[in-house]
Give the backbone structure.
Amino acid sequence: MSSNIEGFVGDVKGVIILDNEGARVMAKYYNSKGTFFETLSSQKSFERTLFQKSNKVSGSSRSANSFENDIMTVDNYVAIFRMYSDFSIFIIGHSDDNELILGMVLDCIHECFERIFRHNIERKSLINNMSGVILVIDELFDQGIVMHLDPNVILARITTQKTSSSAAPNA
């Protein structure tokens, strides 16, 4: 049995959030050892290319704040992305991956953020609640494998984790 899971349905190479100037707000890469994403410099280069190409693909739709998924290929990877008023979220998969699954992943993240931020999805909200952002992504993936696509399950697990950690006795 091969340990190579490239192209596996539900295998994600990365989740990247960039602000409207292309700066990294958050990025998480999976199974990056021995790949293009192994070094920080190659990640930053890829993110710069993502940002530049996504602005060309979406054109002026950034100002419309349409909350619609878009797709592009960058360096033999497929990127499903959604632009908001002041940031963008990218789901990265191998070029052979199923774009519909990657789109469902992005839709799930959007729905979770909608509920967490009470329909006020913007960069400031993300930064002020980065632990919630990271929890959503950590509950959604296990080493790049999609574990859940139901926002209700993910948000319930996050709520359970927060209540169990706050209920821990103080030492």
